[in-house]
Every structure is written in C-alpha cells, then in structure tokens.
C-alpha cells in the first residue's frame, strides 16, 4: 500500500519539473542543516522542544502539524537529532513514550533527502515482533508520509497469500515486516531488492528475542548490506539485546532518557493492586466490569484458554457493555478487525493475553486490569503501558493471590513501579458463582472451555520461572474449579506432581519416624509375650526357648519386609526385587494376621481390617480410582494368601501346644527335635511363598514405573502451544 498520495501500491504520478527542482533544492538545504545542527556524539542534551525546530522537510512538518504531533517527547528529543545525522541509535525508553515517531521521522527524511523512489528498491526495513504492532507502525507511517508522494510502503507479515505479497515487492520503498515473513521473502522472492538499503529498524528488540526470533534476525542481518544506518529500540536492556546490538550496530548513540527516572512508568498513570483469593477472581472481574460500564478496559490473563472461557462467560451473563477477546488463536484478519473495532467504541471490555501487551497503542484506554499475575516486572510494565500513553491519563489494577503478593510486590518495588493497595468496597462486590455454575452446567461446550481454562491456568503457574512468586503447591485447585463453575475439580497432573515433590520430604521423614515408633511398640509387645511364655513353668521354659527365639526372629524379619511402600518408593525410583507397590507381600499380610489373637488383622477399633483399610494405612496417601482398585485387588489376594498360611501355621502351633501340654502333665520335657522340625517346616513354607511373592512384586513395580514413564511422556506431548 502507498504511504503517500499514490494508491493501491502504484507509483505516484509524475510531478511538474518545477516541483521536482524545488524539492531537490530543499533536500540539499536540509542536508547542510543536518550536518550543521547535528549534536555532538555521546550527548543527549538536545535543546529542541518542538518538531518545528528540527531540520525537517516542509512535507513532514505539515503532516506532523496535521496530526497534532508538534511537541517532542523525551525519547524523541534525544534520538531524532542523532538519527537525522545518520548515526546508529540504541534506544531504551518506557512503553508509550513515542518510540515509533523516533525512528519513522528520520527514515522519511533520509529517503526524502536522497530523492528516493520505488525504482531504487527498498530503502528502509522496519522489523517488529507481531502483526498487530506492524499494522500500527504502518498506520503511523501513512499519516506521516501523506504529503510525500514518492514514498510507498507495504506490510510483509503474513495473513495473506505469499504470492500476493510478492506481487507488490518491486514497488516498495519502505517495508514493515515480521521476522519470519521477511526471512522467507529474502530467501524466495527475487523481487525484493535490498542491495541499496539505507536504514534498518529493530523495534521491540527484547520482545523479538523473547519470542524466539533470534535465528531469523541473524539470517536477515546476514542477507542485508552492512553499509546502512541501524536503529534498535527496546523497552529493557538485557544481555541478549546487548549481544544483538553488538552484531547489528556500529558505534551507536545510546539513548536512555528514563534510566535515572524515579518511576519506571508514566507519571500520569495511577496504579494499584488488590489481594484476592483464587476463589473470588471471577467475582472480582464481574464486579469491576459492572463498576466501569462507561469506560474501556483491557483484562489480561495468562493463557488463551482462560481468555476464551472468560469471554464466553461474560458474553452470556450480559454485563451491559460490549465484550471482546484478543489472543493468538484468532486469525490475523479477525484480530485486526477486533483491534480496530475496540478503538472505535467508547466503552468496551477486552479479554486479552500478552499478545496485546507489547507495542499496541490503544488511544484513550481507561483501565488495564491484570487479572493474572505477570511473570515479571517487565511484563507488568508492558501490560500497564497500554494506557496513559503520550501524555494521557490512565489507570492500572493488579490482582494478586495471597501467595504471590509478597515476592511480586518486591519485584515491582525493585523495578521502580509505584503501587498502592486497595480493597474492594462491599457495596461493589458481587458474586456470580451461582450464575457461572448454572451456565457451565447447562452448556457442555462451556464446561469443556472451563476445564481447559482450569488446566491451562495450572500449567501456566507451573511453567513460570520465578518459583518465589508462583508456588504451585499453594494453588487451591478446588477454589479455582469452583470459581469456574465446575461441579468437581478436574485432575491436574502437573499440580499433583508439584505437590508431591514438596511433600515428599515431609512424607519420607514422617513415615520413617512413624515406622520406628511402630517397630518399638511391636518389639515391646513381643518381649512381653516372650516373658509370659517363660513364666509358664520350668519344664516348658527350656523346651520353648528355641521356638520363642526363632518365632521372634521370624516376626522381626516380617516386620522389616512390611515397611510402608510409600517410604520405599520415596527412597528409590528404580526397580527393585524387594520393593512392593502397595505394602508388601503375602509374608507381610501373614505377619499382620499374627499380631492379634484370633488370627486376623484388626482395625483401630478392634474389628477385622479390610483390604481398603490396610491399603490406606500402608500407602498413607490418596490414589486415583483405577490405581486404588488395582491395589485393593492385590492386597485382598495377599490377605487371603496370608490367612491360608496362617491357618496352616496355627494348626501346627496347636499341635505343638498339645505336645508341650502333654509333656508338662506327664513331667517329661518336650523333644527339642520336634520343636526344631516344626520351626523348619514353617520357615520352609514361608520361604517358598516369599520367593513367589517377591517375583510377583518385582513385576508389579516394573509395570508401575513403566506406566509412570508413559504418563510423564504424555504430559510433555500435550498440545499447549497457545498458552
């Protein structure tokens, strides 16, 4: 498209020779003024306050006046004089500070002074991270170049057929592009002539790198001429930005007018925060929207799925103000239409992700509500920077969970962001949980969106790098599900993993202490029984000592094998022949059955313990239904095997007791050989059963670990690209 009077991308009509000579004379005069009025290198002490004081062409001055761009902002006052002089510029400035004109004015003037036309090829390229920002820059360029008939410009950012973009490449003098599309044209479109390129602009350089465009940027820099003017603008100066600057800039002028500022955000921006429990977030959103029905508001959330769900909820509840959504899953043409429609409305609410947080200009925006905590202070600044732009006023409200507030507020204080705490007035607080739950229950699609939004929010918290701010273990999943109107809490695998990691050390220590206490109590009970047996009579004491000693050792060995499976699994993640999934083998169950008189395991109240109770006591934590069912079947089988073994053992012990009683009555001592033979038979029977049980347990543990690996692999392959 044409940035000047020519339309449809066609070259402007030839002008009279007198006009051409007049423009040539003006260009020569401006070139002399630029050299004479250029500031000294390394200085930012420009005295100009108005654009009219700078060496600019009459056409540019007229366009600036027509658009009421007359007064220079701080970054424009510092950067434009150096850029007009043809120097490379590395600029760092607050969002909404006027960076766009800081590079557009020098580009337009450079091409005017060199009498550039479309026949000369592409004279300037502007690279930006998103289509929306590219469109916004294009709109500003049209307004600035409206009186430059030879200036033609075009967008290369996708959203239309590749061949359609190729068809106009030969008629462009300025290109505004996203990195991927520009790289594709440089590699596949011979019509794109950059051999005479004069200027390159990298806008939002930090965002370009954050979005993973570094390989494309490096490829583009390698394909462009090195003899050019380069301007790089970034809201934050990171190590990656510095590395990019060293590769693309030559002896640049560093412009950082806000580096020593007391605040990192505009002075006309009123900022506050509120601490809100997770269960009340949707209520707070509704209350806020109802309290600002005549204003324009952008609501930032952390994921696309949340934006879709909350948009549908608000749309169905009909708050009395237009509701829109803007996120990466919307097609480019539709996103452009939504952005334009929002600008035209006097009052509206837009649910957005961070796709709208960088570079987009929303003139006259009243509020920025950050419903989800930003990942860092820089993201907060970019979000809230959508309002209070270009000397206008604006308001920002940040919603924090109680677990997020301390660390996040400290991050913002370190970044020079002034915030004051507010509370929601009781008269304005409204609850819509019942209405949301009714809508979700009545519509299966909305319920699906709610479940996806739930999982997406949990995943976004898990993926945040700052664990001091985002603590997944503190996340109340039940409260989140309730606020989304879900009748039950969906299973969140990532959340379960986070909580299990935090609790693992506690469980490990707790289980060990509890097991040591149980072992001590059992040992004391066994010792008491041994003492009672020794006092039955002199004749029987000698005969039974060997049996009692062997029985005590057998019971202690069974106790060692009956250690809780939860403790064993926490101590080792590898397969082991001695490990058990759900609390031991048949020998362990037999030992449990021997503990009380009557030959059966007992619950705390004295009744016979069920498999489920043994399972809960051994595992010590809840399990999914399918896993618990499998565990119960295994445990019931172990109990039945133990009962059979115990029955045989009890019969043998009854026979032994009869022999001992007969010996005592007759005054004869029991045969030590008979006792040893019986103990050997019992030990052999238990050893044979123990070997089979150990093999079964080894196979069960291996199957369990294989299932966990498959589940972990499935979680990694989940489709969450839009988060």
Automatic annotation (TrEMBL):
* Top EC category: hydrolase
Keyword Hydrolase part of the UniProt annotation: yes
Disordered: annotated span: 1-28, 486-607
Q: Which domain of life is it from?
A: Eukaryota
* Catalytic activity of the protein: ATP + H2O = ADP + phosphate + H(+)
What's the Enzyme Commission number for this chain?
3.6.4.13
Q: Which InterPro entries match?
A: DEAD/DEAH_box_helicase_dom, Helicase_ATP-bd, Helicase_C-like, P-loop_NTPase, RNA-helicase_DEAD-box_CS, SPB4-like_CTE
Per the UniProt record, one Pfam family is DEAD
Q: Which molecular-function annotation in GO is an example for this chain? A: RNA helicase activity
**Keywords assigned by UniProt, alphabetized:** ATP-binding, Helicase, Hydrolase, Nucleotide-binding, RNA-binding
Cross-referenced Gene3D superfamilies: P-loop containing nucleotide triphosphate hydrolases
The chain positions of domain Helicase ATP-binding read 80-255
- Does the record bear Nucleotide-binding in its keywords? yes
Acidic residues bias spans: 528-539, 568-582
| Low complexity compositional bias, start-end | 557-567
Q: Where is the Helicase C-terminal domain?
A: 283-433
Ranges of Basic and acidic residues composition bias in the record: 14-25, 493-527, 593-607
Q: SMART domains under this entry?
A: DEXDc, DUF4217, HELICc
Briefly state the protein's biological role: RNA helicase.
**Protein family according to the UniProt entry:** Belongs to the DEAD box helicase family.
What is said about the domains?
Answer: The Q motif is unique to and characteristic of the DEAD box family of RNA helicases and controls ATP binding and hydrolysis.
Name of the protein in question? ATP-dependent RNA helicase
């Amino acid at each position: 498209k044409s940035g000047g009077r020519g339309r449809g991308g066609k070259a402007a009509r030839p002008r009279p020779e007198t006009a051409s000579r007049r423009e040539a004379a003006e260009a020569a005069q401006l070139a002399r003024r630029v050299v004479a009025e250029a500031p000294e290198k390394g200085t930012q002490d420009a005295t100009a306050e108005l654009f009219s004081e700078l060496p600019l062409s009459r056409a540019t001055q007229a366009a600036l006046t027509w658009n009421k761009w007359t007064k220079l902002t701080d970054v424009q006052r510092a950067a434009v004089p150096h850029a007009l002089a043809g120097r490379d510029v590395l600029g760092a400035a607050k969002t909404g500070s006027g960076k766009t004109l800081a590079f557009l004015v020098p580009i337009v003037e450079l091409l005017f002074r060199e009498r550039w036309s479309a026949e000369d090829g592409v004279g300037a390229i502007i690279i930006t991270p998103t289509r929306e920002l590219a469109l916004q820059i294009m709109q500003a360029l049209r307004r600035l170049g409206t009186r430059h008939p030879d200036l033609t410009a075009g967008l290369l950012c996708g959203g239309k057929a590749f061949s359609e973009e190729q068809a106009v490449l030969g008629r462009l003098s300025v290109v505004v592009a996203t990195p991927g599309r520009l790289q594709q044209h440089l590699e596949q479109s011979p019509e794109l002539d950059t051999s005479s390129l004069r200027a390159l602009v990298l806008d939002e350089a930090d965002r370009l790198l954050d979005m993973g465009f570094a390989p494309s940027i490096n490829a583009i820099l390698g394909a462009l001429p090195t003899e050019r003017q380069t301007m790089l603008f970034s809201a934050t100066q990171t190590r990656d930005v510095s590395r990019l600057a060293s590769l693309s800039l030559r002896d640049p002028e560093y412009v950082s007018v806000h580096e020593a500022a007391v605040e990192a955000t505009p002075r006309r921006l009123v900022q506050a925060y509120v601490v809100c429990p997770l269960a009340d977030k949707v209520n707070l959103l509704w209350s806020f929207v109802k309290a600002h029905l005549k204003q324009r508001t952008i609501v930032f959330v952390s994921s696309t799925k949340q934006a879709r769900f909350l948009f549908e909820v608000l749309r169905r509840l009909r708050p009395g103000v237009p509701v829109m959504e803007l996120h990466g899953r919307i097609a480019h043409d539709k996103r452009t239409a939504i952005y334009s429609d929002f600008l035209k409305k006097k009052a509206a609410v837009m649910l957005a992700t961070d796709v709208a947080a960088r570079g987009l200009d929303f003139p006259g925006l009243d509020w920025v509500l950050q419903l989800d905590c930003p990942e860092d202070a820089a993201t907060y600044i970019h979000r809230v920077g959508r309002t209070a732009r270009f000397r206008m006023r604006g308001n920002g409200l940040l919603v924090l969970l109680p677990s997020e507030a301390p660390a996040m507020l400290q991050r913002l204080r370190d970044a020079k962001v002034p915030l004051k705490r507010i509370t929601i007035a009781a008269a304005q607080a409204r609850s819509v949980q019942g209405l949301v739950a009714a809508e979700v229950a009545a519509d299966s699609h909305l319920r699906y969106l709610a479940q996806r939004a739930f999982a997406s929010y949990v995943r976004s918290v898990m993926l945040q790098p700052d664990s001091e701010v985002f603590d997944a273990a503190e996340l109340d999943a039940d409260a989140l599900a309730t606020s989304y109107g879900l009748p039950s809490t969906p299973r969140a695998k990532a959340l379960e993993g986070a909580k299990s990691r935090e609790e693992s050390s506690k469980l490990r220590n707790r289980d060990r202490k509890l097991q040591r206490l149980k072992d001590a109590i059992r040992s004391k009970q066994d010792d008491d029984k041994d003492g009672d047996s020794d006092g039955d009579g002199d004749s029987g004491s000698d005969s039974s000592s060997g049996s009692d000693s062997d029985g005590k050792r057998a019971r202690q060995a069974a106790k060692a094998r009956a250690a809780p499976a939860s403790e064993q699994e926490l101590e080792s993640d590898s397969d082991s022949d001695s490990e058990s999934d759900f609390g031991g083998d048949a020998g362990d169950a037999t030992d449990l059955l021997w503990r009380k008189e009557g030959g059966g395991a007992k619950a705390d109240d004295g009744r016979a313990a069920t498999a489920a109770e043994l399972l809960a006591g051994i595992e010590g934590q809840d399990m999914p239904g399918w896993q618990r069912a499998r565990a119960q079947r295994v445990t019931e089988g172990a109990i039945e095997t133990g009962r059979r073994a115990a029955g045989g053992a009890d019969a043998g012990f009854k026979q032994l007791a009869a022999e001992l009683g007969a010996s005592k009555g007759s005054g004869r001592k029991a045969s030590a050989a008979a006792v040893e033979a019986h103990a050997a038979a019992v030990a052999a029977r238990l050893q044979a059963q123990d070997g089979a049980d150990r093999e079964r347990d080894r196979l069960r543990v291996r199957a369990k670990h294989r299932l966990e690996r498959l589940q972990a692999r499935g979680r990694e392959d989940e489709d969450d690209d839009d988060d």
